Amino acid sequence: MKDHLIIFDTTMRDGEQSPGASMTKEEKLRIARLLEKMRVDVIEAGFPAASNGDFEAVQGVANAIKDSTVCSLSRANDRDISRAAEALKGANRSRIHTFIATSALHMEKKLRMTPDQVFEQARLAVRFARNLVADVEFSPEDAYRSDMDFLCRIIEAVIKDGATTINVPDTVGYAIPELYGTFIKTLRERVPNSDQAVWSVHCHNDLGMAVANSLAGVKIGGARQVECTINGLGERAGNCSLEEVVMALKTRRDYFGLDVGIETQHILAASRMVSQITGFVVQPNKAIVGANAFAHAAGIHQDGVLKARDTYEIMRAEDVGWSANKIVLSKVSGRNAFKQRLQELGAQLESESEINAAFARFKELADRKSEIFDEDILALVGNESVAREKEPYSFVSLSQHSETGERPHASIVFTVDGKEIKSASDGDGPVDASLKAIEAHVNSGAEMVLYSVNAISGSTESQGEVTVRLQHSGRVVNGVGADPDIIVASAKAYLSALSKLRSKADRVAAQG
Ligand code: KIV
Ligand code: ZN
Question: What's the gap in Å between 192 CA and the centre of ligand 1?
Answer without folding.
Answer: 24
